[in-house]
Amino acid sequence: MPVWTLYGLRRGVATNPWPDGGQVTQRGVQGMPRFHSEQCKEGCRVCADVCLPGAIRIIENGRGERLTLDYGKCVACQMCTEFCPEDAMEKSGDWAFAVSKRADLIWDEALTSLPAQELTQKIHTAFGRSLHVRHVDAGSCNGCESELQALNNPYYNLHRLGIFFTPSPRFADLLLVMGTVTYAMKEALLETYNAMPEPRWVMAMGTCAVSGGAVGGGYACGRGVEEFLPVDIYVPGCPPNPTAMIQALLLLLNRTPQRVQGGHFAD
Amino acid sequence: MNGALEQRLSPDELPEVCRALMAGGARLQMAYAWFPEPDTPEVIYLGDWKRLEPFPMLRCRLLDGRRELPSLAAITPLLGWYEREIQDLCGIQFSGHPEPSPLVLHEGARPEMPPLDPRYQPEEMMPYSPQPWHLPAVEGDDVQQLPFGPVRADVLESAQILFYYVGEGILHCHPRLFFKHRGLEKQFEGLSPLLGVVLAERISGVDSFAHALAFCQAVEAAASSKIPERASYLRVILAELERLYNHLHYLGHLCHTTTLKVGEAQGKLLEEQCKQINGEFTGSRFLRGLLVPGGMRRDLSLNGLEERLRRLEPQIIDYMFELETTNSHLDRLLTTGLLPRQVAFDQGASGPIKRASGIQRDLRWSHPYAAYGSFNVDVPVRQEGDAHARSQIRMDEIRASIKLIYSALENLPRGRVSTEVHAFPGSEGLGWCESTRGSIYHCVHFDEVGHLARVKVKSPSFSNWRVFPFTVHDSNMMDYAINEASFGLTMAGCDR
Ligand code: SF4
Ligand code: SF4
After folding, report:
1. CATH number at residue A217
2. Nearest to A142 by CA among B188, B155, B241
3. B184-488, what's its fold?
4. How much is the ipTM here?
5. pTM (predicted TM-score)
6. Chain B partners within 8 Å of A154 (Cβ)
7. How many angstroms separate the CA of residue A156 from the nearest CA in chain B?
């Protein structure tokens, strides 16, 4: 019979202290593409053609064609970065993409020179130290669940931040939704929301929940939580890695700044 | 179809040919339908036979407006679910089906036409008003019903489980699945093979690589193209990395259900370390964005991977040893959720589940793909068929995966990692792989302009969810969570 307590002690502390010091280690993980508009060539639409969720679109605005990029639809598949002949789409490690206004995920030329960091807004101040979360899988691919489950592993150890999962919606402050919202999950999602006491918040976690992502639409899928419920925080990523999820939760708690504004990511 | 040995049959010939196949030792794996022409659906049955022998395939066109076939569920029970799926999605009935109620589409879903009919191009979600579902009649004085879900405790995927119970004993368990049906097979329609991979990676997140691999191989089969050697070795390494983090998660989660807290934490920490290795060496913790029909999207430098694994390996071995010597944990697993060999065979158990019930099959060994033919693939097998055997199979596979990765790294050839692939209009291909959870088959059909006309996805969780309730009947409420965890199921893969 092994002595598991000793076993645990022997292993020592596995938890990464981030955000209270320590390195944010998602080493090598590729995030959303960075768009360098000055390199983008007129008339080219290679990136839009390889973007399955339609995050990149070419729109005609009267003065010629213009490219728009909606990070709320991006699944970080890296296709555009590999196909763009001008290197206008660059691979990056930008993954902390949680925002409180959906529009902030849409790339906006006007903001090119403004450091997003300065534009950080305070959102909610209603929370004490702890947050209780009810998760609902409204039709995910389970990639998002896999990363959410990881938050309880010793490396991320979510409890240390005063954030807990609760089975009962009655004790939940936050409804954390993943997936596009399928026709068959809509009802259960709304029921869970209605069972929560006010004030309550909703987080759309993962590109599916933000916009439908790569699989939204068709006969069985919605295009994100917003179609059915008011959303407070949008977290694109396919899936958002565990650190991105923590960043989003802390953003809701007003314990970390928003990193993205007008589709621009601040380092 | 490239990759299979076909027989074209008329509806009346089906039952007999199916019986003959079974008598010859073959096993049918799945069935699906598609519409080569809008008014002429075709139903396709896929089986497997001996090692290295081609997969038998039966094809049957429904001419002159016919929309009915004889059900084969009585001959091969596992086809029962596939027939119901075809009924829901393609509008074909199966006469003599033992339980013809809807399966994949919930009662109350009303698409204007069968969703997989190519003429069906809905602008929005189909109309749906929830209806009571079809339930088996369970008689008895003290029998109570207890539903769980679809939103369940813990961070779990959505599904509803209805228990009929007396006291602590479960008489019958009736899962209602497909809450997460996303209509994915329809969404492949009209895509280029390149974008099809991005979708295939999102069938089941934790099986991203395996699904993308089966899909790419199906496209490559359709185009009769061969990928560069280096790509085929890289595919082996990546597929085994996927198995590794999944199996470690499985062991950790199993500890969660037996309340072995430290075991849970350690299993999930090891899983995390494997995901981090994935992220570091490939850019994606889920091994996404790497495959393309014809090989790999880009070359990977795996320098340092072996060293990382060598450092992790003793911790993994240690961990498994501790689990195997913890009586309180083992007591909960032994004899829990018994799955007899015959039930596993008839109902279509796949992967570690069938290998834990005495069926020694593994596609990496029986029908090698990628570079698996160049390696000795150990296929562990156990006879006990309980939760413990299912976890032991995973442990054996963890050891085997690590060995495989080492030898693939050692023999990793240099050279290109991709080749041009052109699927001809109207071509068809079958791709397969042995994923963490069992066998995956993808069948692709191209249309006249070289886009995808139909992609059928056979997922192991669909197979194993069908089998699972057979192990719950007459068991104990306390063991349910352990038993479910021991199956290692996903919803997303099952529901698609
Ligand atoms: S990385 Fe994002 S923007 Fe680029 S092709 Fe993929 S989904 Fe589209
Ligand atoms: S956002 Fe991506 S990882 Fe998350 S559920 Fe959707 S497809 Fe899966």
Report:
1. 3.40.50.12280
2. B155
3. Cytochrome-c3 Hydrogenase; chain B (1.10.645)
4. 0.93
5. 0.94
6. 265-266, 268-269
7. 9
